[in-house]
Design a protein that fits this description.
Elements lengths: L2 H24 L1 E16 L5 E16 L4 E15 L4 E17 L4 E16 L4 E17 L4 E14 L6 E14 L1
Antiparallel strand pairs: 1-2, 1-8, 2-3, 3-4, 4-5, 5-6, 6-7, 7-8
Length: 184
């Protein structure tokens, strides 16, 4: 075997050993919190609409299986939003579970997508709407690794049409958040 082929074989073997080690370093549980802006876009079955913004926050925990795939459970509070066109305010919160797909750009920066399901509680004053519904949640985000254990992340999440009363009234929820996570 020539010297160049030996070096190539040794390099390939070393890379094969190093890859699972790198993936193992990225695996494990994590917890975190975020804060940002929640948005409610409400529509009446009779043609009216209203929207509003509020401070949103959330807590989450998850498990990163490898650098590319993780699973996350979280609680999201959308805040209390004034819906002026309806003369009422709304409050919403959700418990959600998601699969997170990550594309590492380099050792410290990555982009990710979220696909999951959320159990949303929606309440609107002056309308009598107080309901629990299940909907999907989709999101896009970026993460920046500050240290081996700490990441800063920014994310947009969208909760599509939620039928709140069976008469055509519905709401769409979304959030822009910035947060941090700590890996164990």
């Amino acid at each position: 075997m020539s010297s160049a082929k030996k070096h190539l074989a040794i390099a390939a073997f070393a890379a094969a050993i190093a890859l699972p080690t790198q993936a193992a370093n990225e695996a494990g549980p994590y917890i975190g919190a975020d804060v940002g802006q929640g948005h409610v876009d409400a529509h009446s079955g009779f043609g009216g609409s209203a929207s509003g913004d509020a401070t949103a926050w959330g807590i989450f925990g998850g498990y990163q299986f490898n650098p590319y795939v993780g699973a996350e459970l979280g609680y999201r509070d959308f805040g209390s939003t004034n819906l002026d066109n309806f003369g009422s305010s709304s409050k919403a919160h959700a418990v959600q579970g998601s699969v997170i797909g990550t594309l590492p750009v380099n050792d410290i920066f990555g982009v990710y997508g979220r696909l999951g399901v959320a159990a949303v509680h929606f309440n609107s004053s002056n309308s009598g709407i107080d309901t629990d519904k299940t909907t999907s949640v989709v999101g896009l985000g970026t993460s920046f690794k500050v240290s081996h254990q700490v990441k800063i992340r920014a994310e947009y999440d969208y909760y599509p049409r939620i039928d709140v009363d069976g008469f055509g009234d519905n709401a769409k929820l979304s959030t822009w958040t910035v947060g941090a996570s700590y890996a164990f």
